[in-house]
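Q: Can I see a sequence and its folded structure?
A: Here is a first one.
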Amino acid sequence: STVLFSFSRLRYRDRAMMLRIAEATPAILGQFRAADITHFLAAFARLDIQHKLIFNLFAREIARKLHDFTAAQLGELVYAYARLEIKHELLLDVLKKRIAAVVKALKPWHLAMVANGFARLEVADEAFFTTLAAEICRRIAEFPGRPLALVANAYARLGVRNRFLLEVLGDEVFRRRAELEPQAVAMVLNAHARLQISNPVLFDYFAQDIPRRIKAYSLHSLCLVASAYARTGRSEKQLFEKIGDA
């Protein structure tokens, strides 16, 4: 598992080799420790190699050894299943309960990873996302820009309208507006618009700022921005003209 994980970090993708290893894995499944399981599944996820049988076999092993996993490893497991779009209902229920119990031990990146992972798998458990939101709000100042955007996107994607979280997140984005990357700005604005959370200060500022930095925005980010402002019904002529020219 350590060797595979190293290959994945180097982006070395040998599908045939990975599948041969997967075929040999069931015979020694019981020997895998929590760290081994995490590295093994993360390697397949990072290299976008899906093997449903192996992931389903490991789901039972994860449930059996659940308390051996650290909070960070739980986040990595959610990421692995979500990236490969493997929705194992029983495992996700087990992971939700365990993550809720250790949520305070999760670092900002892993909180974002968990929220985004469950969103990608379309698991809209309002109680679980309320638990995540409380911890995210408590530690909002610790979040880098990208995880902030991923959190906003996760709640918007599922339609989980946690007003307090989005307001806190929006205020934090405005406070750190100078350091955010364009993609993060676009994702946050789009999340507010999709969830119908009003933040006039945020939208007013970026309506002026985005035209000044229009070349830094990708086409996809500009589409998200245009969609966000259109959803809110705001008439920002200069902004839309700049987006149209781009």
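Q: Show me another, different protein.
A: A second, unrelated one:
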Amino acid sequence: MEEAKKAMQACIDSVKTGTDRTVYYGFTIKEDSDEFMCREGYKDAAGLIAHFSDVKEALQKAHEVADVKSVDCIGPKAELEKLKKHLDALGGPTKMYFTTLGKSLSSLPFEGKKDAHVSVQPRLTVKEGKMDEMKKFLAETVDITAKGTKLNMYYGYYISGNTVRCREGYVNAEGLLSHMGEVGAVLAKAMPLCETMEMGVHATAGEIKKCKEHILKAMPMTTFWELLPGAVTGNAIETIQT
């Protein structure tokens, strides 16, 4: 475990002297598990492609102590098309590409150099023949979110086949709990259209503590992932590579 954490910190250090297209970068670890996730965002496909060059050596060392299970790429169709050819050529783990569905919200860029925001990653498998109905409910939650808590940082849905992912971020646990109250009634109507649903909350230990009990009452399938120290925003980049 300690070797893995050192390898991840080496990746973060490489990011801090890498592409200025990075928005946020860090790692989370699942509660009571040795499973990690890299939580990362880029302004465009060019940013992610540049990132792979920035962390190449650090990533190779990380692969010596950890197995990569899967890679999910989320974004606009045009950017994913630029990315797909590059990533598929690298081989490695299974990759899924989720295309932007409808409107998405963003209050980027992030403030400060340290990243400590709360991110939530629901994943829905929609029942056969129910996608059009589901899309209406999802669009409604985007409209509600646009008028809701000011602690929301980004929010939107992404689709691959019959699988939908929501990418959402909040300043803190208070923002997440406020949002859940705002969209709860709509989501309750949408849930019967799902074959399966997963949800992961990624945050610092302190923010998880503030929201865990409430979330588990509403969504007992939720997993919690603690943000490890060292996570950064694009503002932490010291030297821009060209």
